[in-house]
Amino acid sequence: MNSYLIRMTVPWLCPFLLVMSIWILLRGHNAPGGGFIGGLVAAAAIAFWCFARGVEDAKRWMRVSPLHLMIAGVSTALISGLMPMFAGKPMLTALWHKVEVPLLGKLPLGTPILFDIGVFFAVVGVTTSILFSLEEFELWNRSGPS
Amino acid sequence: MTTIIESEPWLATVALISTIIILVSMGMTVVHLLRGPGLSDRVAALDLTALLLLGAIVLYSLKTGNPMFLDVALVLALLGFLSTIGFARYLEERNKP
Hints:
Radius of gyration of chain A: 19 Å
Pfam families (chain B): MrpF_PhaF
Subcellular location (chain B): Cell membrane
Number of helices of chain B: 4
Strand content of chain A: 5-15%
Main location (chain B): membrane
Membrane topology (chain B): Multi-pass membrane protein
Oligomer: heterodimer
Structural class of chain B: mainly alpha
Largest sheet of chain A: 2 strands, antiparallel
Largest interface: A-B, 17 and 13 residues
Number of helices of chain A: 5
GO molecular function, one term (chain B): sodium:proton antiporter activity
């Protein structure tokens, strides 16, 4: 898109959206939010970059290919599901461990947050891969299928 | 826990008046969305609808005293214009020969 204002705004706005997506990811389980919605917000940030500066620039900004993100997300979720089996519990049981953080108190860490992180990366990967495919098809269509 | 609207009774009147104003302007925006002569007018009306919805969400949060809705408003404010940009892009592509 050929607009100077949007091209200059995007590098300032997208980091805010990504921070917001991580915040939404972390507040899940106790409040509205979670991996899926956080992943959608992060994908919206990448979509915004893609609209403003083109597909190639968005891919360079992401640094990781969407396929790798998908694989990493699904394997993280799978590992979090398999972890209770080694503790002698059924698959996908939530395991909790309280970590002592200095000055802040106890931080409950469990497998649900790991599962949510996996969902987050899978959603980002799927959405951006669909978006990039559509954009590339559009570019190919415009240049003429010669 | 008392909500802010219980400790400050005049806020109820403010919320009522603001709700009426937002409702009236939303109706006018919908009329503009349906009648608008061009596609770009309709896109602008859609953007305005999202902003009015944001105001309505904040008012509802004030009325119920639930701060959870403010996060919804925050996300909507950050992402609401993304659809407008998508439409603008589509219009730009369409007008190109």
